[in-house]
Amino acid sequence: MYNRNNRSSSRPKSSGRSKFGGSKFGGQKAGRGRKFSGESIDINRFINQAVKVENAPVFVPQHSFDEFEIRPELKTAIAKKGYKSPTPIQDLTIPIILTGQDVIGLA
């Protein structure tokens, strides 16, 4: 039994090796195991190339923020932020929201 006051206990000392082989910290000892053939790894295998996308049609909004029946203070705040026209999801959902209906959208 191990007694911290008595250093000569029957507790086994660690050998520095895990029970699964190799060292406790990282498998095999440094300098062993891996063998390099001198060839370098082609880094381009790990870089994703950009995929060219066809030109998407340009969105033309059907509404402007001024056309929506919202409070004047809200229209003023939108204009101060520099927004001129709504995004596609805003353009399609704001009129529905203003009628009192619920909307779930995915942009």
List keywords for this structure.
mainly alpha; 19% helix; elongated
Cα-to-Cα separation, first versus last residue? 66 Å
**Which whole number gives the mean pLDDT?**
78
What percent of residues are in strands? Answer: under 5%
Main sheet overview: none
Tally of helical runs: 2
Topology as a string of helices (H) and strands (E): HH
User: Helix content range of the residues, please?
Assistant: 10-25%
Counting helices, strands and paired strands, the structural category is: mainly alpha
Low-confidence stretches: none
By DSSP, the count of extended strands is 0
Backbone CA Rg? 34 Å
Which shape, going by the Cα principal axes? Answer: elongated
Question: Could you describe the 3D structure shown?
Answer:
With 107 residues, the protein is mainly alpha-helical. Helices cover 19% and strands 0% of the residues. It is built from two helices and no strands. The chain has helices at residues 72-80, 88-98. The longest helix has 11 residues, at 88-98. The chain is elongated. The mean pLDDT is 78.
